[in-house]
Amino acid sequence: MNQEVYHIPALLPQTLEALDIKPGGIYVDATFGGGGHSRAILECLGPDGRLLGFDQDEDALPGAPDDTRFTMVYGNFRYLRNFLRFYSVDKADGILADLGVSFHHFDDASRGFSFRADAPLDMRMNRHGSVTAASLLAGITEERLADILHLYGEVPSARRMARAIVAARAQAPVDTISRLLEIITPMIDRRKEKKELACVFQALRIEVNGELEALRSFLTQAAEALKPGGRLAIITYHSLEDRLVKNFMRAGNFEGRMETDIYGRSDRILKPLGSKPAVASEAEVEANPRSRSAKLRVAVKL
Prior knowledge:
- This protein has 13 helices and eight strands.
- It is of the alpha/beta class.
- The chain folds into two domains: 3-103 and 211-301, Vaccinia Virus protein VP39 (Rossmann fold), CATH 3.40.50; 109-209, Putative methyltransferase TM0872, insert domain (DNA polymerase, domain 1, Orthogonal Bundle), CATH 1.10.150.
- It is globular.
- The model is unreliable at 1-5 (pLDDT under 50).
């Protein structure tokens, strides 16, 4: 696999600045992917620094840097606490997560993440996972499917689309991309076809991989795993993720409620750095169009 094109890291200079890397520090790249962020972090570390890279996709494993300071962790970042304990890491100086889907997932048609080529409806980040998009569509209720399309993809015709998919599966399985497109395309606004199809695929992918539940678990554990003064840097790509990250960094919960004790003291353990997220420049978007929707939020451990 060509690691140079596997993944172009979004917002790289801003991320390195946000992490405020100490040469002898301990850092975590919770979403290794193609390793672009990890390699840049290693360049900033001294001989005593340490970096752990997490990825739940076995396709990412061969890209691990050959560096004694680097540890590749084959696992979902929702199990951050357990893996850090296993690798004898008490507290980290900085933790990064880039929540974007890797180029590899979109560009490998066989993975079923993109509507641009026919393939089995898979969409699993971890190919050992038990639920595929096809198995999800085979057993889900019409009401739940409509909720997923509406909540996770903001699909305009979510109810009609769910009804059509459930009706169609009674005639033949909905287990390939071409079969799904055959069913939903009549309900797509032709003027916004690519955008609406992307929203449908996003919604199914989020549900198949339990992405929002994993993110909530990860954020809670990451805040606990940081040293005082340590940095948490998260790059999001859609409003659902960004809202969770923003609320958690600001208020310490996912609803955004500012809670205090009887003395008026806040019990939050993170402080956001900056009131607005960093976004890609026009030059970066031109060089890497997938960075267009990237937002980097940063917080420091109190």
